[in-house]
Fold:
Amino acid sequence: MFATPMQVLYLHECQELSGTMLQFHSDFYCIEYHRQEVACNGLLFNNIYIDPIVTLTQREARQFETLLNDIAEEAAQEAPVEMVLRSYLQLFLAKSSACKKKMIAAHTDRPETDEKMEQFRQLLDTHYLTLHKPADYAAMLALSPDNFTKRCNKYYKKTPSQMIQERLVLEAKKQLHLTRKSIKEIAFALNFEDEFYFSRFFKKLTQVSPQAFRDKTGISIVADI
Structure:
């Protein structure tokens, strides 16, 4: 399971769950900067349309367990070598991306394809800045609001309103992390009335203010490239 800083995840019916948590900061390994090497940004991270989960075979699970043990062993050294740790992390992300792509190709990551919902994804990515009502998208898809909501819930496990809000928040997070724009400039770019309304909206969805999110995650090296 993959998550970005301050992303809220919900686990249902997971009794006695155990596992290993691997955390890294973008100052250590920036997935945006190294996107060609790992191809994980938009696949494992920063995607509102697919579950941030990779299902492993037993063989794959053993490979990842070995890799995590190698990372833990290197990190426990008196003077761990950053280049070695980055290489392990890059391999971990690249292998995870390959497994996720295999799931998508085999259609095991979601129910049978719903063409209308795939069209909704394209429409949302195109119009999320200007169209904020589910009824707008239902009309473009020639669906009744109730049918649209039902199909969206089944396909994405989210309501259309959640999808629209999450798409806006995703773009806000990108601009907070990947640019040096002020909060006011980001609010204007996202078509909010003012920075205060934007801050209230962002905090309602993420539980933190835009400035607190930026302070926690920092500004990526990508901002200066």
About this structure: The chain has two domains: 1-11+19-110, 115-224. Residues 1-11+19-110 form one domain.
